[in-house]
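From the methods appendix. Each design record in this collection lists the tokenized structure first, followed by the designed amino acid sequence. Records were kept in a plain field format so they could be parsed without special tools. The example shown here is representative of the layout used throughout.

RECORD:
FOLD TOKENS (276 positions):
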């Protein structure tokens, strides 16, 4: 693959698919936000490596649909990101199957809610392992290939909770603040190498999982769905959920040539939440 004259220049533009020939690895991409990002990148021509858990038949249907719809290579790996060796194997799988990772999106995450004095230590360890340490390991494993080619895009999906706090989410808030800090450190280390590293900080996002959880919660209480949704969105001045497609579009922009000078940032997409 021929890159441009200067570090950071993208491969030659392929018309309506400017990412044609690039390899994008998106963690936590078998549903929700991660799948939306993978779809957006595939639509721009990127070959995608999906990673996450779920029903294998459903994942295979997703993989096939992406490949057929956008005429790209789409692969799936079920790496357990809690283990550094599995993360390294995931990066190697992408390299050996399609090519070195050009676009890395760290999206995988888990949540646990509890007062800190009751917060199980094993849950703390798990949240930090998946939400923070896994991103460190993917970046460490992918960077040598990016440096060798003088091009790379790293996007870490943080959260509004990477910028502000909330009660009962100590591990999640700590991990997401850590992701924002990791992003800045990586950006400074790679700024002259044609590599960008940014974090995206969504507020509450409308996904099938969130919809199902809220509707089930409403069934088990006297509160209406509309009132429950309003309570959830109390921190979000727009009073609207962020759409998965909007996050996909933002990540895709950050991976484009137009964003080549944007690095080390934490971009909020939260309906005004962190403007308070």
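DESIGN:
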């Amino acid at each position: 693959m021929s890159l441009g004259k200067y570090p950071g220049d993208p491969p030659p533009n392929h018309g309506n698919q400017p990412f044609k020939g690039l390899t994008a690895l998106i963690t936590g991409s078998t549903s929700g936000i991660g799948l939306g990002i993978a779809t957006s990148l595939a639509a721009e021509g990127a070959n995608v490596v999906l990673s996450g858990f779920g029903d294998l038949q459903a994942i295979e249907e997703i993989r096939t649909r992406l490949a057929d719809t956008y005429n790209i290579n789409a692969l799936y790996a079920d790496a357990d990101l809690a283990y550094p060796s599995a993360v390294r194997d995931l990066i190697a799988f992408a390299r050996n199957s399609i090519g070195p990772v050009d676009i890395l999106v760290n999206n995988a995450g888990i949540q646990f809610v509890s007062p800190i004095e009751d917060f199980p230590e094993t849950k703390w360890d798990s949240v930090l392992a998946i939400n923070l340490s896994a991103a460190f390991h993917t970046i460490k494993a992918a960077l040598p290939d990016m440096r060798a080619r003088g091009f790379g895009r790293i996007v870490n999906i943080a959260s509004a909770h990477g910028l502000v706090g909330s009660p009962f989410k100590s591990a999640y808030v700590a991990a997401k603040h850590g992701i924002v800090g990791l992003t800045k450190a990586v950006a400074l280390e790679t700024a002259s190498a044609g590599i960008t590293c940014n974090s995206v900080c969504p507020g509450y996002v409308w996904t099938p999982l969130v919809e199902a959880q809220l509707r089930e919660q409403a069934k088990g209480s006297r509160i209406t769905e509309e009132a429950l949704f309003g309570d959830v969105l109390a921190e979000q001045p727009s009073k609207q959920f962020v759409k998965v497609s909007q996050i996909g579009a933002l990540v895709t922009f950050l991976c484009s040539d137009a964003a080549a000078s944007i690095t080390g940032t934490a971009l909020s997409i939260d309906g005004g939440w962190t403007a308070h």
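APPENDIX NOTE: Residues 206-239 form one domain.
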